[in-house]
Amino acid sequence: MSINPVVLDVRVIPPRDKHPAIFRTFDGLDRGQSMLLVNDHDPLPLRYQLVAERPDTFTWTYEEQGPEVWRVRIDRR
Question: Which domains does the chain have, with CATH numbers?
Fold first, then answer.
């Protein structure tokens, strides 16, 4: 787990571009690096997509769970 994660605030990204931006950021991480995803709703569907498309490559930790801001730390394994 990296001390200074890459912060990706998707609240400012158009909805159609959010998941592609998240996957680009995740795929750009080295093993042991982290990203901090900031969103305006629970990104649980994204977790299911990551499990399906990038199995066994990450850990998912909620750092804040709403009601207005969700922060999820995604660590690259």
Answer: 6-76 (3.30.110.40)
Q: State the Rg of the chain over Cα.
A: 11
Which residue(s) pair with 35 in the sheet?
A: 6, 74
pLDDT attached to residue 1: 57
Cα within 13 Å of Cα(72), Cβ side: 19
pLDDT given at position 3 = 77
Looking at per-residue confidence, does 2 or 18 come out higher? 18
Whether pLDDT at 16 is above 90:
yes
Task: Report the 3 state secondary structure along 15-60.
Answer: HHHHHHHHHHHHHCCCCCCEEEEEECCCCHHHHHHHHHHCCCCEEE
